[in-house]
Amino acid sequence: MHELRITKVLVEQIVNECNTNNIIEPKRVIVELGELTNYKKEPILYYYDFIRSQTHLLENTELVINEIKGKIRCNSCSKESEIKENYLILCPLCKSLDVHIIQGRDFILKEIEGE
Amino acid sequence: MCEDHEHEPVKKVEIDKSISNVNDAIAAQISDFLEEKRILCVNIMGSPGSGKTSVIENIAPMLKAGDIYVIQGDLESDIDKKRMEQIGIDAYQINTHSGCHLNAEMVNRALMDISLKDKKYLLIENVGNLVCPSGIRIGQHINVVVSSTAEGSDKPKKYPNIFYDASLVVISKLDIAKAVGFNEKEYMKDILNINSKVKILKTSSKQKESFSAVAHFIAHERDHLTGEHRH
Fold it and tell me: How far apart, in whole angstroms, are the C-alpha atoms of residue B206 and residue B229?
């Protein structure tokens, strides 16, 4: 159930953006889903299929979800690294805990393709 | 002359907007509004039964009950609102029904119904859940996670997201730590591996004074927000 609400918000946002950008036949919507969010790709696609069947504009619109890895920047050695385990937010290079997350916490509507 | 049908070419429109744009905009309005009124907004999160309401009950007399307004989030019932009112705290109950967390719109609607005159703290007790409330902005200035020893010391590893943005983790039910086999050392290490800047405080309802550090932390955060610094 967790992803149902955010998928509804996503669909609303797609419809609004289509109206704003004069897209009457959206073919493909690309979103970016951060691995450190609490949302998972499969349930979003599941709910999207259900919601679009009731949303005339999106009946033929494919949803593409690109998953984005979590990334940190180390405040000690200034290097950027991918997060391997979501419970280990530390620098894999110098082992410092003084890091901040720079990628992977967002769910972004990236692009709409259509006519 | 044959006229070809003119097809609009497929166009790609770059949007690049967060899906939670609307929620986050409302949340930012709430936190600005409260900051202007010199009210610290605290989002209290944790599993059902972790002791969130007990933490509020225990810190209220230390902060001064009259300075606090509490918004309670639960699927159903007004049990927690009544618990607050019994100890002289003004409270409002949000029932989300099937909703697994509060959002900024729910808090905004509640704020239209309540008076925060002379309040210094708005404590929002989120729906009991260690997963869904994390990362959802509701207008808070700080996040507090309440985590009980009875839940087990493996919770940070299993549910790391809720700890990413926490300013404070309150370990509750310390009096039963031994009985439930709580491994404090492992727990502390795992939390700091997720969020090295978080403050961790240990409490037990059997020792009321253990909550004074929590009250002090929250008072200090308000001083920080309003620019008042006590020495």
Answer: 31
Furthest-apart CA atoms within chain A: distance in Å: 53
Q: Report residue B115 as tokens.
A: 């008076």
Q: Is B176 on the interface with A (CB under 8 A)?
A: no
Q: Which CATH superfamily is domain B2-225 in?
A: P-loop containing nucleotide triphosphate hydrolases (3.40.50.300)
How do the domains of chain B map onto residue ranges?
Answer: 2-225
ipTM: 0.91
Closest chain A C-alpha to B161 CA, distance in angstroms: 7
Q: Which residue of A has its CA nearest to B192?
A: A97
Starting at the earlier edge strand, list the strands of the sheet with B40-45: B90-95, B68-74, B121-125, B40-45, B142-148, B166-172, B199-202
* pTM (two decimals): 0.92
Give the residue from chain A lying closest to B22, CA to CA.
A9
- Asked if A9 lies within 8 A of B23 by C-beta distance, the reply is yes
pLDDT tens-digit series, residues B44-101: 999 999 999 999 999 999 999 999 999 999 999 999 999 999 999 999 999 999 899 9
Of the candidates A15, A19, A3, the one whose C-alpha atom is nearest the C-alpha of residue A59 is A15
